[in-house]
Amino acid sequence: MTQPNLHYCLNCERTENEIPLVSLRYAGGQAWICSQCLPTLIHKPQNLAGKLAGANQIPPAEHEH
């Protein structure tokens, strides 16, 4: 039985009852991503294509190691 208004991670589909979620807005829409999938959004947003509209247009973060 699904619970109304229960939010899911756009990547791994775990619920807010299972893992902390962060709300995000992009291209006029709202989505949720969990704390463990957030690095994917930051470093490899192209991996979210098909899960987040326009993800393939988001450039990965620039950083030095």
Question: Which key terms come to mind for this protein?
Answer:
mainly beta
In brief:
The chain is mainly beta and 65 residues long. 9% of the residues lie in helices and 18% in strands.
Structure description:
It contains one helix and two strands, in the order ββα. The protein has 65 residues and is mainly beta. The chain has one domain. The chain has a two-stranded antiparallel ribbon. The mean pLDDT is 92.
Say how many strands there are.
Answer: 2
SS summary, helix count: 1
The string of secondary-structure elements, in order, is EEH
Oligomeric status: single chain
Give the topology, please.
Elements: E1 21-26, E2 29-34, H1 38-43
Antiparallel strand pairs: 1-2
